[in-house]
Amino acid sequence: MNAHNTPGIAKPLTLPCGATVKNRFYKSAMNEALAGRDCAPTEEHVRLYRTWAEGGAGVLVTGNVMVDRTQLGEPGNVAVEDGRDLNMLRRWAAAGTRNGAHCWMQINHPGRQSPITINQHPYAPSGGKLEGDYGRFFAEPTALTVEQIHDIVHRFATTARIAKKAGFTGVEIHAAHGYLINQFLSPEDNRRTDEYGGDIEHRARFLFEVFDAVREAVGPEFPVAVKLNSSDVPIAVKIDDRGGSFSGFDEKESIWVMKQLEKRGVDLIDISGGTLEKPLIQTNSGAVEDRRRGVYFTEFARRVKGELTVPVALTGGFRNARDMERALDEGITQMIGIARPLALVPDLPKRIIRDRWDGSVDLPWVTTGVKALDRAFGGILVISWFELQMNRIGHGKRPDPRIGGLRALCFAIGKHGPGALAPRHRKGHQ
């Protein structure tokens, strides 16, 4: 195919650091839940990412890799804080970079958003438990000292350095979804009165210190992306659950932070939104919800378009090539973020680019068949279902959309114990 009829999704993109990705498919992060109690990557990670790389995506972003193995966000997280798992990390990176793909490690610290079943001593910018129904699943966090903050900054840099050494071709700093960096950014979570609290310039200090330390650790020619909330409030929600005005990290502050990251040399901003207390999606209705809502964050992306020159990845709701091409043509995104569809159709990029497939990926309505169970475990049910599909791919099997929700719940409990039923943000499961 010549340059004149090459679809936008197939065109390469050169990042500010000079690295080039082969196409615009950006496999966004999903928690694979494949690590054991030792927090080490596994053969299943290798098979899963080899499958995705051979499926044609330009960039594969890993699920959460935690910078402290005592502070995990979900069961089955990988943690990298030293070189003990370097050999397996190298195999994971080699698998994820086959077929010319980039494979970027998403690095993160959960802060207070660490379930009590796996962590009874979480940390946060300030004291205070998670609000609402989810609060009982999480222990009261301890406010970080300045010395501890500096240690976590160092941990992010160390994990990024090891990622590069292992052969990953980039890193993504997770600053969204209610995890630690997002907690610092939010005036609802961050009530500090020192240099890390107060106005947005001070609340963003931790993120900027993490970014600068990571950049120094990996050098100027290595891609460093940041996943950032457009705001902490879910789409179409204008007021909080108590009926008052929303007072969390908002769109105006988000754009300011993005501009500062651009000045610091970020290579890509991955736009997202919502927190555990204010989750982005609260249904398990699959394609029904997709058709109702469409592509996430479109209006915010249009606002950002005139503010930034750094590439943006827009994730959530892309189910067919038409919507992807429209978003690229409008210039509201430079990378098309895909997550859940790739757990069902791992070679979707190849089908769209090579075979010019013009169908749509319809995600199933995940149900146990018992309404009370569906209501009780709606978000967890969906996450567990997609984790089961990734587990199948990791074991060399095909995804199976016919699997029911009850089997997914049993799988999660069997693999991770009761901790699998603790609420988890549906990050990236878009």
UniProtKB/TrEMBL annotation:
This is NADH:flavin oxidoreductase/NADH oxidase family protein. CDD domains: OYE_like_2_FMN. It comes from the Bacteria. One of its GO terms (molecular function) is oxidoreductase activity. Pfam families: Oxidored_FMN (PF00724). Residues 11-356 form the NADH:flavin oxidoreductase/NADH oxidase N-terminal domain. Keywords: Flavoprotein, Oxidoreductase. SUPFAM superfamilies: FMN-linked oxidoreductases (SSF51395). The keyword Flavoprotein applies.
